[in-house]
Amino acid sequence: MNGDAIVLERLTKRYGGETVVDELDLTVANGELFALLGPNGAGKTTTVEIIEGYRRPDGGTVRVFGHDPRREGGRIRPQLGLMLQSGGLYSQLRPIEAVELFAAFYPDPLDPAQLLAQVGLARAARTRYRDLSGGERQRLSLALAIVGRPRLAILDEPTGAMDAQARRETWRVLRELRERGTTILLTTHLLDEAEALADRVAILDRGRLVALGTPAELRRGLGLAPRAAHDGTVPAAPDGAPHGQAATDPAAPALDLREVRLELPGPLDADRLAGLGRLGAVQALRIDRPGVYVLRTPATGELLVELSTWLLAVGIEPLAIRVGQGSLEDVFLRLVGEGSGA
Amino acid sequence: MTPAQAWRAFLAQARVELLLTARRGENLLVTLAIPLLLLVFFSTVPLLPPPSWGGRQVDQVAPGILALAIVSTGLVSLGIATAFERAYGVLKRLGGSPLPRSALLAAKTLAVVATEVVQVLLIAIVAAMLGWAPQGGIVGGILGALPWLLLGSIAFCAMGLLLAGALRAEAVLALANGIYLVFLLLGGIIIPLDHLPLAVAIPASFLPPAQLAGLLRGTLEPGGVVEPAQAAGLAAWAVALVAATLFTFRTE
Asked: In the prediction, which pLDDT does A127 show?
């Protein structure tokens, strides 16, 4: 058991000739909120469905609290709360009835009515499932996953169909759950979700682990999986810097995403764009979207001086200049952005 | 899971199954309204040849209607409901919960039995009002028919689940209703098999609805005799259908 809720070793799953999960090694510690992040088709759902015991791996091992989920599912399920992407409910059942049903499956459940209020379904408690919106169904699904006070909650895209406000409320519920000691594994394709919630994030791309670490570590460019770096899975950064090789040394300066983000009232013409790129402290220039430029630099202070001078010279008032180490999104896009539809 | 906990899970699931059975309006149409309508219609409108033993028309209609009730509950109602539970991911979700599979099956069985008890009671009451006088009296006749009702339930529930666990829900919806109609017309349910052309009657006699209807007629019709071959045939169907269902059923 040694304090780990989930241990995956060289987990592999193939569908037809395609490898959907490729020798995945992961450990989720007890009490941790762990996010599996990746674009659609990265293998997130397949991975969690193997952990949940729904699918048989083609290679490698899975242990949940030290048990094999397929052969010893009966021992694991009472400690598990699941939110499936494809798990529906009786169309004629009302949320309160559904939560009461699932509450009866566990020895010490939460109070169904209170739980519905907590996930924001108090008013829809007596609406039949078929008449609930997509977001409401997801809230109900979350309630069903946590009503039994599980030791481990596995949530597959828990906020997928929710609007921004519902998403924030769900984040609050998940944080409270974690504070009470529940281990949470969630999948998401939303960077801000992983960044806002997770203790640790694993980035998956085409079934492979391409990065693993805390959101802060990933933002600093640490935590790239060594294997991904060796075999060149990490695409080159937009400026062509050799990140693939540098990734083997976490301290390598090329991975340090010190960036200045410049927002202008409108896009620059080609001459001015070239001028911006020629500033001495600019190591790389990326157009984020028209009018928004990300400058990578080894010397932030120097760049700011140059930038101010240049802006004054060309007569442009910037809307915003932000200095930072880049967001998780930058890391994510560098790792999986190319060719995977992220 | 402790036995007490499993029992609690079963009770909760059974409550939901019964609740849903009552809430599915289209279910009540096929399980109650259609059999009762056909019972009244064919017992009062002289479309069928009169019974050979000279009794009332209801005496030869009621046993077939009881068979129809069993077919509608197992094949149509259970089959279609389960197919949609599978398509909507309900079975998958329950499979990931601590609810033991045996408790789910027991709860579904309870809902089926409850439906059939209501069906048999209502059919018996309406038939009694139409002057039904089965062999052994109404209560005695129905008690005598219980083994066949049970055996038929197993066979037709398995048939419904066989479709539900293998085909798309829309296909189950169409197919279950289609088979129901064929069974209704050619299964010896309304029209006794000996009134049908031989080319239809002989193959139909090997099918479970004709066997169930035949066993019920043998038990309930005045002067009727149960044919052991029909009992053996229906039992064989029940075993084969249950085995096929266990072998092929997929929850996803």
From this structure: 95
- pLDDT score at A222: 54
Per residue in B142-198, pLDDT (tens digit) is: 999 999 999 999 999 999 999 999 999 999 999 999 999 999 999 999 988 888 899
Contact between A11 and A59 (Cβ < 8 Å): yes
Interface of A with B in 54-93 (CB under 8 A): 54, 74, 77-78, 80, 82, 84, 86-93
**A86 contacts B5? CB cut-off 8 A:** no
pLDDT of the residue at A225:
47
The CATH number, out of the four listed (3.30.750.24, 3.30.2010.30, 3.30.70.600, 1.10.540.10), of the domain defined by the range A258-324: 3.30.70.600
In the chain, the amino acid numbered B156 is: F
Distance from the Cα of residue A245 to its chain's centroid: 25
**CA proximity to B187, closest of B225, B159, B228, B164:** B159
Give CA–CA dist A43/A27, Å, rounded: 17
DSSP string, A289-314: ETTEEEEE-S-HHHHHHHHHHHHHHH
Domain boundaries in chain A?
Answer: 4-206, 258-324
Q: Measured in whole angstroms, how far is the alpha carbon of residue A159 from the centre of its chain? A: 12
